[in-house]
């Protein structure tokens, strides 16, 4: 475990609220921007007659941009500072958000996506590093539960804003850019309290992906199941006999579980001796829940009940995985590991829909559940092996 670099605040016993508010503001902007931007851009491309394949290809640039930006974020923050880098990312994200309105050439939307989601990724990484570096060790899970709850609210608020604003004119783009810019205020006010990266990470970026595998694997599974589930559950639900509105409501129930369990799971992670045990338990619940999905299609109420708790377990992988990361590393290593964490999440968001969609094509509608169970099963195997055979390693 590396020592904290000079200038990095020493761990404290109380929550430092200016730092928490700055990090939460950044992640709120991320959640709202993604929640508003993804359906907005897809609807506009559909109205312009862009083929679905090209719409999907353009949307996939989000994950690819995140994967490309993650390795360079820590180096840039080391050179220019955490808060200045976040403020610069806010400017690029807001400018590119408006750029989608003013630039109508579809092919130019590809580099715009790279800029927009690359900047959003920088905010993602550095806000998580900031909150992890300054959270009290004995309350890290609780603080990250607040962080995860606000992120969930941001994701939910984006589609709500879209439903109110629609897709016509500059207003939805201006609101999106404005929300992003508002995040700059608390970050600027707390700029002197941001963690200082006086040291460069002492490992190659990809080594951080495997340095704390229980954390990076957890967020990979989270990204795969979340993105694949949100994308393909409506298809699974309607093929199983539910109406579109019933399937949509089931997704809402899962989102409620995602929201209400973040803080309790985070607080529980502060009390367990080894967070890897909690991660294993949640993935086991996720595995069992996925296997039961095909058996629950006869009862909407039972499906909703299972999805409520299942959604909480899935989202808890992110919160507890991030908390485990913060408990193992400090300073520049923590910043680089946070970048690897987001990189792993981005890989999951690309792999999940592809694997789940392919499973549904090959094995039928139940392939949705089998593929998700497969993701959870791989993680259960990994976590059990590491706990049993290598209990003292991160």
List keywords for this structure.
MFS_YcaD-like; 15 helices; mainly alpha; 394 residues; MFS_trans_sf; disordered N terminus; transmembrane helix
Overview of the molecule:
- It comes from Sinorhizobium numidicum.
- The chain crosses the membrane at residues 20-44, 82-103, 109-130, 142-164, 170-189, 210-235, 247-265, 277-294, 300-322, 334-356, 368-389.
- Its main location: membrane.
- This protein is mainly α.
- Helices cover 80% and strands 0% of the residues.
- It has 15 helices and no strands.
- It has helices spanning 17-47, 52-80, 82-102, 109-134, 140-165, 171-182, 184-189, 205-211, 213-239, 244-260, 262-271, 275-292, 300-328, 331-363, 367-389.
- Mean pLDDT is 83; it is low at 1-11.
A few lines on this structure:
The chain contains 15 helices and no strands.
Mean pLDDT: 83
Question: Helix content range of the residues, please?
Answer: over 70%
Radius of gyration: 20 Å
H and E string? HHHHHHHHHHHHHHH
Percent range for β-strand residues: under 5%
Show unreliable segments. Answer: 1-11
Q: What is the molecular shape?
A: globular
Number of strands: 0
For the sheet with most strands, the description reads: none
Structural class: mainly alpha
Distance between the termini: 9 Å
- What is the count of DSSP helices, taking H or I runs of 4+ residues? 15
Topology:
Blueprint: H1 17-47, H2 52-80, H3 82-102, H4 109-134, H5 140-165, H6 171-182, H7 184-189, H8 205-211, H9 213-239, H10 244-260, H11 262-271, H12 275-292, H13 300-328, H14 331-363, H15 367-389
């Amino acid at each position: 475990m590396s020592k904290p670099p000079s200038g990095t605040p020493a761990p404290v016993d109380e929550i430092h609220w200016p730092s928490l508010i700055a990090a939460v503001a950044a992640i709120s902007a991320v959640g709202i921007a993604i929640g508003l931007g993804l359906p907005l851009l897809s609807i506009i491309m559909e109205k312009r007659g862009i083929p679905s394949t090209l719409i999907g290809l353009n949307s996939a640039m989000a994950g690819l941009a995140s994967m490309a930006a993650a390795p360079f974020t820590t180096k840039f923050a080391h050179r220019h500072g955490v808060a200045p880098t976040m403020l610069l990312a806010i400017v690029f994200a807001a400018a590119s958000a408006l750029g989608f309105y003013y630039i109508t050439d579809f092919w130019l939307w590809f580099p715009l996506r790279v800029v927009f989601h690359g900047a959003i990724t920088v905010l993602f990484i550095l806000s998580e590093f900031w909150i992890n570096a300054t959270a009290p060790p004995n309350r890290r899970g609780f603080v990250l539960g607040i962080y995860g709850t606000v992120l969930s609210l941001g994701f939910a608020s984006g589609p709500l804003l879209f439903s109110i604003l629609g897709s016509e004119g500059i207003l939805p783009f201006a609101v999106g850019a404005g929300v992003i810019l508002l995040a700059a205020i608390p970050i600027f006010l707390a700029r002197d309290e941001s963690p200082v990266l006086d040291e460069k990470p002492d490992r190659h970026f990809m080594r951080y992906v495997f340095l704390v595998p229980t954390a990076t694997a957890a967020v990979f599974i989270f990204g795969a199941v979340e993105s694949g589930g949100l994308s393909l559950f409506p298809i699974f639900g309607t093929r199983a006999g539910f109406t579109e509105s019933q399937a949509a409501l089931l997704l809402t129930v899962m989102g409620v579980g995602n929201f209400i369990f973040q803080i309790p799971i985070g607080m529980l992670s502060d009390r367990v001796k080894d967070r890897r045990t909690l991660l294993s338990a949640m993935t086991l619940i996720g595995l069992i829940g996925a296997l039961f999905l095909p058996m629950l299609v006869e009862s909407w109420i039972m499906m909703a009940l299972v999805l409520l708790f299942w959604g909480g377990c899935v989202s808890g992988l992110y919160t507890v995985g991030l908390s485990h990361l913060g408990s193992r590393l400090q300073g520049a290593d923590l910043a680089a590991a946070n970048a690897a964490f987001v990189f792993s999440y981005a890989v999951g968001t690309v792999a999940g829909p592809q694997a789940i969609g392919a499973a549904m094509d090959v094995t039928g509608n139940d392939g949705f559940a089998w593929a998700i169970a497969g993701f959870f099963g791989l993680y259960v195997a990994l976590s059990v092996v590491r706990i049993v055979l290598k209990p003292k390693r991160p």
